Amino acid sequence: MNMHLRQVRSFVVVARFSSFTRAADLLNLTQPALTVQIRQLEQSLGVKLFDRNTRAVELTRIGREMLPVLERLLGEFDAVVANAREMANLRYGTVRIAALPSVAATVLPPLIARFKERHPQIRVVLRDSVGERINAAVRDEAVDFGIGSDIEPDAELETVPLFEDVMRAVVPAAHPLADAVEIRLDRLIEEPLILMDKGSSVRSLIDRAFADGGHLVVPAYEVTYMSTAVGLVRAGLGIAILPSTAIELRMEAELPSLAIGNPVLRRPITLVLKAGRSLPPAAEALRDMLTSWEA
């Protein structure tokens, strides 16, 4: 069957107005061209749709049965086209993101707020996650893109550097180092350390840095949540090493945080995309805002 939408549209308009003349005007066609389209549709379907004489145009019985079906088909097609245009013009759509908790809590909220000011009709779904879970969500296309760190080479993923997240040492308020501005990494090995669980990008960075300096780090406490680390520091139980983007660190004014030197610990924050996949227009717009943002 070789049925075209323009033929269906011509049939529906002729049927609605019972007039080839009126339909031709509305469709901006000549009457002979319209007649050809109706004839081609009838040939494709193998049935006659109209009875036509010098005085009137009437639907055949089969034409009357076909009209609601073809009207529904045409309406659904028009709705799809309209939705696609709305999405292209950023008046409709959803952006799905998976991001590290520290980035999701501090970097993304003001950016999303600015994006929503420009595109209030776009819905943004933000999932805070970690490490390989972010990568898996991008691979499975459960999200449009991810924001992670410590990304291993992967043929299914593309990465774009965004910024560097510098680690800081969070010390108890009564600690002798509380008034210091900076602390050397090898000095931290002498302190009871509160570190994130193994497998997190923060922990991987810290373990590599100590190993490069010839040290095997044995933390006093290992935690899953940064808020737990801050609570342990507040109780005087040790020094935590946390990313500067951590909301827990930014909100804790009573606890001093020191720069770490020799070496400075920098965690690269990276945009993670599915290789070879185009983004929907809304996701592309937010991605462009992210890549042009400066930390």
What is this entry, summarized?
This is LysR family transcriptional regulator. The chain is α/β, with parallel strands linked by helices and 295 residues long.
Largest sheet: 10 strands, mixed
Number of helices: 12
What is the CATH domain class of the largest domain? Alpha Beta
What structural class results from the helix and strand content?
alpha/beta
- The CATH topology label of the largest domain is D-Maltodextrin-Binding Protein, domain 2
Spatial shape = rod-shaped
| Oligomeric state as shown | single chain
Rg from Cα: 31 Å
Keywords summarizing the entry:
alpha/beta, D-Maltodextrin-Binding Protein, domain 2, 3 domains, ten-stranded mixed sheet, 12 helices, rod-shaped, DNA binding, transcription, LysR_subst-bd, HTH-type_LysR_regulators, transcription regulation
Task: Describe this entry's structure for a reader.
The model has no long low-confidence stretch (mean pLDDT 90). It is rod-shaped, with a radius of gyration of 31 Å. 45% of the residues lie in helices and 22% in strands. α1 packs across α3 (31-45). The chain contains 12 helices and 12 strands. The chain has 3 domains: 5-88, Winged helix-like DNA-binding domain superfamily/Winged helix DNA-binding domain (Arc Repressor Mutant, subunit A), CATH 1.10.10.10; 94-163 and 269-292, Periplasmic binding protein-like II (D-Maltodextrin-Binding Protein, domain 2, 3-Layer(aba) Sandwich), CATH 3.40.190.10; 164-266, D-Maltodextrin-Binding Protein, domain 2 (3-Layer(aba) Sandwich). The strands form 2 sheets. Strands 3, 4, 5, 6, 7, 8, 9, 10, 11 and 12 form a 10-stranded mixed beta sheet that branches. Strands 1-2 form a two-stranded antiparallel sheet. The longest helix is centred in the first third of the chain and has 28 residues, at 61-88.
